[in-house]
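Section: protein folds

Sequence with per-residue tokens
===
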Amino acid sequence: MKYEIKQQDKFKYIEVGSGEPLVLLHGLFGALSNFKDLVDHFATQYTVVVPLLPLFELDIFHTTVGGLAKHVHKFIELRNYNGIHLLGNSLGGHVALVHILKHPERIKTLTLTGSSGLFENGMGDSYPKRGDKEYIRKKTQLTFYDPAMATDELVNEVFEITNNRIKVIKIIALAKSAIRNNLGEELKQITQPTCLIWGNNDTITPPFVAKEFNNLIPNSELHFIDNCGHAPMMEVPHEFNKILSEFLKKQHQAAATLA
């Protein structure tokens, strides 16, 4: 299903469905298509929102995890979302973490999948190898357990980015910012119920990273999916949506009991 990209002020986003807001943050090479199955599934119960993160629009000094988190905060304030279920993949997870640590008041739950913030094997420093599509194809395949997930369309998207000198500089700036912005013990401040959904075959943020997130975030639960890499919501959408549905349902039931 194709969704309309809306714009308000400088913010571009999609918003479909009705109910509590489920806000999805994509990663460094992410796009709206990464969340297609997730949006289709949850738009029947939630207002599903996917802001387009300005990975290449910010000036170089603000092309950082913190700069993206400020963008998300301003977007949430402008749209006046409350009781948010915040979800982030890869760099989007890192942005979600920085946001919730600074502005926890509107966030109801947090879901991370393949998130940076503690450790990641980035694609960053090796990306200036422009013009070599097969190299880009192999690097893109590393995102997934099944290399066939790196379709020609996806490889072409990444290839286009890596053939643009300014975009490459900003990709490297964001990758280095993610490495520098190691959250560590700060994660113990997060009080919201947190769901960690991880591919058992993730080579970018390996399983030990998920276990460390689970150790550090007090009210968190960890789910591993076999035969799955760095983007579970793309590679195994049925399993991913099932885990997330059960987690969110459990939070609704807990809130109803308290009420």
